[in-house]
């Protein structure tokens, strides 16, 4: 079986075969203890390894119990006798150099005194002592090293903390709290790619008109920016939104109208105009053409009457079609719509006329521009280049030249001569084929018969 088999036992299959004696019905015998014997642990490699492992575990448990029962000096006891240890080290040095064997106070004397403090310590030559000095010295050195390490680590930690704080002090950037206007500008920039140019003081709007305009922007900015962004971004240029610099008289006129209006009448509306009209609109406001000799004339017609035409936010393309100039300005207006107080289907009145896409106001006080939406200005170089460079002419692609068609192949050289037959007779000689000659001969024979 080999040396390994002798050491660890038989294999499992060999043990089964060797101990299985008798018939298979031997289990009927009440005295039969089984094919593995009384312990049911055959001497196989597996069971031997299990037994050895179990014995090793039991032996380790016994060693642990013995170790727990033995006397172990704690660090607390050693710390209480710190002064004695110092004397012990001095005494041990003196005993090794100058003192005699019987009179020196060594580590072993100290250890014995610690173990049996109530009984007087026997002299060294008379009784054996448990020499604990190496162990005590090791504990002493460990404790001293621990204290030194704690001091060094504490100093290193404090130094590292100071350095990290110093580094953080230099690297830390002061966090600037954004104002409410900046937060709204960032939101509109991320949603609709519009640049909001609205600078308010840190304390907020101060005048009543600025307070009204700021509240209007917070309530309706997302609505009119969503409808205008698709139009302006289609031009491929950036677009901006800024407050309309209207005159003080226009502000006072609209504020007095708002004081007379009911709550909820202030609504957003759009008004497209020519870029050249902005200065007049900001100085005098939106006026009804020809009223009170204001000098404003009708430009784009008056199908629904002479008034101030404004488009709903959902129909921003209507105002966009009337925006003229390089910047294509569209005025975001605040309008006082009295139809909010009405519930019937016919909401038109002498002040306002309603269509499916526009509202026409017949009173100047009800409309005031609050913001101006416009395109980014074109650089001068680009503008001059666009004026001088002509439109590119469309050049027809060159005609495709196809290669000439190949000549058809002829019948080729006639290398074989066709068999012919010449018939002589009263008629002139005629060259005929072999089949025709055969038919001619057969016809002649039939005539002879």
In short:
The chain has 449 residues and is α+β, with helices and mostly antiparallel strands. The protein has 14 helices and ten strands.
Describe the protein.
This protein has 449 residues and is an alpha+beta fold. The protein folds into 3 domains: 3-69, no CATH class; 79-156 and 164-168, no CATH class; 181-340 and 347-378, Phosphoenolpyruvate Carboxykinase, domain 3, CATH 3.90.228. Helices cover 44% and strands 11% of the residues. The protein has 14 helices and 10 strands. Strand 1 (194-196), helix 9 (208-233) and strand 2 (239-243) form a beta-alpha-beta unit. Helix 8 (180-192) runs parallel beside helix 9. The longest helix is centred in the middle third of the chain and has 39 residues, at 133-171. It is flat and about 145 Å long. Residues 94-130 and 380-389 have low confidence and may be disordered.
